[in-house]
Design brief:
The complex is a heterodimer of chains A (about 425) and B (about 220). With about 425 residues, chain A is an alpha+beta fold. In chain A, about 30% of the residues lie in helices and about 30% in strands. The interface between A and B is large, with 52 and 61 residues.
Chain lengths: ~425, ~220
């Protein structure tokens, strides 16, 4: 009897072991249903991969104002250090004295020329009068030539005299033209000196006066523009990932949210002399696109450089991706009620989220814990989560449907 | 002395068969029946709570809201719980009535026999829970059944379901029934085997039929 039961027992154990082997071996023909309780819908979101760096807010540009030595000399500054300036604001002025003396001299010279011109005008008028007289009375009058010699000749004599007067008028007119040209020249010089006074006095940029050199060493004025920039340095490792023109988010404890900017320059040479022992750091500059940002110059900020970005990407949690040496897979719970193994092309990986370039669409359900999958292509079932249910949903369902569902459950083997 | 000790009767059939045959009064039968029926409902309910057998609802997951999916599973569980109670009553009384019609012994004694069989059937149901959740081996692929082999030799669903219904636990149950019925009725070995295997064969066929029919499509 004991022997018999021993044989039976052994047969039973053998049967179970054989079945287990057949059911659990790879490519088994037996159906294996997966007990899955963690799944999530494939998301649709924008992934932004950033590189963190530190920076400090500095003025975007410094403008230097140079002083040009002029005959008049420097008079005084019209701004103080720290003063805000706009484009066109006066910064300093030249002293007037020496300059005015020169102007007076020029003015006097001009006036003399003007007087000369008036004199010539008078002479021309006199000559024209003489000409008209000699033409009307040719016989009974003695014409007088310009040089005062008298001529007692007949009509041929008076004709000759008329010609010489005309020549004289012509000469005077050309002299007047020359003088007039000289006067115009003086006018130009005087005018140009007027405008010359204004050069270098007005600001060309808007900003704040940072420094004034009262000893008049150039640059006598330094103006910093209002819109700040951010400066910092990248490590050698960072350098691989960053590129000029990349978008940047600047975060400061003093400002809510992020301030947008652009990585405008990365130095190609480290800030200190290269050394084997120390890591090289490469300065960079960020120009802020948001002009309204109230970043205080000199404050330290966090800089996040957007090194990679995908908009509206299909994303799955990193844990849902099964990796083999060759490829990555996700398990999709499909509309047939089966677990579908899908090969995916991975994109960006960020904060535990993986961008799926190919293999899963947004909205598709993926299994969060791939290790729970018994066999791809087979059905799955899940535990009842009564916490999700509430009375409303149950009361909304028609009684007939509820009865039907219970009946199906009743007969289900 | 003559109280039913379900588990002891289960493991020592030789001793208990005589006791059952010779006793005129068997106390605690109905109490134990009620207990086992309730236990059956409970076990089926727990199994359904884990979602075992609810694969037919899985295809709805993508179509309906999560709440609705859970509601369907809840209704499935209620159905299974009722089925468990029904199953308990059926598995105790149908064979008992069946054997009773072929003998002149009182029904209560056959009911008692089925009370020894019930724990075996319920034990199988309990063991199937970790097999399904842990290894994915649902009823058709249970290592205690012929289902695995069936899936290797045929694609015919009905045959697979039928063979999957035949398990080591059922064989154990048949063995208990055979021992007790033979002792109680004193009939010949062949007839007792025919009766016991016959009634179980009918159950397996029904089980296969229920698995085969997709009630969710009919109802």
């Amino acid at each position: 009897m004991k022997k018999k039961s021993l044989i039976l027992m052994s047969a039973g154990v053998l049967f179970i072991t054989g079945n287990l082997y057949l059911a659990l071996k790879d490519d088994s023909k037996a159906v294996r249903s997966s007990y899955i309780n963690k799944w999530t819908a494939t998301g649709k979101e924008s992934l932004t991969k950033t590189l963190q760096a530190e920076g400090v807010v500095t003025p975007v540009e410094e403008h230097h104002v140079y002083y040009k030595d002029t005959p008049g000399g420097f008079k005084n500054f019209l701004v103080k250090e720290g003063d805000p300036v706009d484009v066109g604001s006066p910064l300093y002025e030249y002293a007037g004295d020496g300059n005015e003396a020169e102007r007076d001299k020029l003015e006097m010279e001009k006036q003399q020329l003007v007087r000369e011109a008036a004199l010539i005008d008078e002479q021309i008028q006199q000559l024209e009068y003489l000409l008209s007289v000699s033409e009307s009375a040719t016989d009974n009058s003695i014409p007088v030539t310009g040089d005062g010699t008298s001529d007692t000749g007949g009509s041929s004599n008076s004709e000759l005299m008329n010609v010489s007067i005309e020549k004289e008028i012509y000469d005077k007119k050309s002299e007047k033209t020359r003088i007039q040209a000289e006067i115009d020249e003086y006018d130009d010089t005087l005018n140009s000196q007027d405008s010359g006074d204004q050069l270098g006095i007005n600001s060309e940029v808007a900003g704040t006066v940072k420094k004034i050199n009262y000893d008049l060493n150039n640059p006598i004025l330094t103006i910093i523009s209002d819109s700040p920039k951010v400066e910092g340095a990248f490590t050698e490792k960072d350098l691989k990932e960053v590129q000029e023109g990349m978008e940047v988010f600047v975060k400061s404890d003093l400002v809510k949210g992020n301030v947008k900017g652009t990585l405008t320059s990365i130095a190609s040479y480290p800030e200190q002399d290269p050394s084997v022992k120390t890591e090289s750091r490469f300065p960079y500059e960020v120009e802020l696109t948001d002009e309204q940002a109230d970043l205080i110059k000199g404050t330290h900020v966090e800089v996040a450089v957007v090194t990679d970005q995908v908009v509206n990407a299909a994303t799955v949690p990193e844990e849902s991706v099964e990796k083999t040496k060759k490829a990555s897979y996700v398990y999709v719970l499909n509309e047939l009620g089966k677990v579908e193994k899908r090969k995916i092309t991975k994109g960006l990986v960020l904060d535990g989220n993986v961008e799926v370039k190919k293999g899963a669409k947004p909205g598709e359900l993926v299994v969060k814990n791939p290790e729970a999958i018994q066999k791809a292509g087979d059905p799955f079932f899940s535990k009842l989560k009564s916490g999700i249910l509430d009375k409303k949903i149950i009361s909304k369902e028609p009684g007939k449907e509820i009865f039907k569902s219970i009946m199906v459950g009743f007969f289900k083997r | 002395m003559n109280r039913i000790h379900v588990l002891r009767g289960l493991f020592y059939p030789d001793l208990y068969t005589y006791k059952l045959r010779d006793s005129e009064y068997v106390p605690g039968v109905w109490k134990n029946t009620v207990m086992l029926v309730l236990l059956s409902g409970l076990i089926f309910g727990i199994s359904a709570y884990f979602g075992i057998g609810s694969e037919y609802l899985s295809k709805n997951l993508t179509a309906v809201s999560r709440e609705n999916y859970e509601l369907q599973k809840l209704l499935f569980m209620i159905g299974q719980l009722i089925w468990g109670l029904f199953y308990g009553i059926a598995m105790i009384f149908i064979p008992a009535l069946f054997f009773w019609t072929f003998s002149d012994i009182e029904l209560k004694k056959f009911v008692t026999v089925q009370l020894y069989v019930m724990p075996v059937l319920l034990l199988e149901k309990v063991i199937n829970i970790p097999l399904a959740t842990g290894l994915g081996l649902i009823k058709t692929s249970s290592p205690f059944s012929l289902g695995v082999i069936a899936q290797y030799i045929t694609n015919k669903d009905f045959i697979i379901y039928f063979l999957a219904a035949i398990t080591l636990f059922k064989i154990w149950a048949i063995f208990i029934e055979y021992k007790y019925i033979k002792m109680l009725t004193g009939k010949r070995r062949g007839i007792v085997l025919l009766l016991v295997i016959g009634i179980n064969l009918i159950f397996w066929l029904f089980s296969a039929l229920f698995s085969f029919i997709q009630f969710e499509k009919i109802l």
